[in-house]
Every structure is written in structure tokens, then in C-alpha cells.
Amino acid sequence: MNFQTFWLDTVVVISSLGAVGFSRLNVVVSKEHDKQLDYMRKFQDNQTDIIRDFATISEAKSGETGHHIRRVSEYTAILAKDLISNDTDLMYIKVASMMHDIGKLMIPNEIIEKPGKLTPEEFDQVKAHSTYGDSLLSHGEGEIMAIARTIAYEHHERWDGKGYPRGLKGDEISIYAQIVSVADVYDALTSKRSYKEAWSPMDAKIEITRQRGYQFSPIVVDIFNTRYKEIEKIRQLYADE
Question: Whose CB has fewer CB within 10 Å in the chain, the N or C terminal residue?
Fold first, then answer.
């Protein structure tokens, strides 16, 4: 394990313990009725800050492209507009989506950054990041953390039931994960990675549409196509250098 990986893992552990400790301490302190609303606002802000910090650390270690997490978050917000009417929930999913790949912190860098095709054994290790994400976020307090945990656990499930880790099918998959799944794959296709070149935006759009009802929720794909110009603006705005 190199020094950078060790440092990042250490920061994650310390941050995790601090986040959980802060959450539990303040849950006790905030019992007084006249402070409850102010506490909730500060608590949600705290969750947001924690998630953004974790997302930055995760991205630094995982070898993902520079603005991947930001783009997925913005794509998610666009896709969620027609499915989630509550403004607070829209903000929650936008922030929570940043943690979709937090479980990759537990995967060795030599696998995450491997330039060639993964072996079946290596791919099994990569797939485990969904379960790791669920475990890492299982002790977090608050609605944003709960949504982040669900997304981390389910964003690789498929509409046809052939995904992982549990083989959920259709609306057994959380609507939050259905949305992030499309956002994540579109960005992965249009981004250069250690193992592939970036697809053209149009080829990626065609692939997302082709997987309607197979890999992806039909309604989310329909919204993706309807709001594609908005999504493309985000991709260009936060393009990798």
C-alpha cells in the first residue's frame, strides 16, 4: 500500500468516526424543542459537508476522471426534477449521489486503475464496492446519509434483475438508485478511463436509450432523452481537461 493510499484511507476512517460522533452527540443535545429546527438545519448542512469531503477523497483514490462526481450530481438533479416534487428531496439526492462509489475506497488501486480487462476474480472485487458502500454508510445519521447509503448499495442493480449485488428488479430498486444509475453510466461512457477511451456523447445517448427497460428504468431513460440538452450543457461545463 503506497503512502497516498494509506493517507486517504486514514482520512476516511477519521472522518467517518468524527461524522458518526458528531451526529450522535447532537441528536442528544437537540432534544430541546425550541432548538430542534435550528439543529436540523445545521445537521443537514453537516451531512452535506461530510458527503462532499468523502466524495472528494473517494475520487482522488479511485482514479475517476476529475469532475466525475460533480457531473453525476448535476445529471442526477436534472433527471430527478420530473420524478421528485419536493425541493428538499431534490437537494438530498443531488448531494447523496456524490457518494455512489464510496465503496471503491475498499478496492485495491491496482484493480481500480488497471489499464486492461479485469479478470473474473478482479471484477468480483470491483462489484463488491456496492456492498462496501452500504457498510461504510450504515452508521450515518440523517436522511441524506440514508439516501446516500441506498444509492451506494443499489446503483448497479438493473431494471431486468440482472444487476448486482442483490439482483433487484424493476421498482424493487429505489427511485434514487434508478436515477443515479443512468447519470453514472452516461458519465462513465463519455469519460476516458484507464481501460478505455471516451465514447462520443451521441453514441453514449444511443446506448442509454438502447438499454431502456433492460439495464435502466424506462421512465428515467425517457426523462434523460427529454432533458438531454441540459445534461450535455453540464458535461461541457464540467469537462475534464
Answer: C
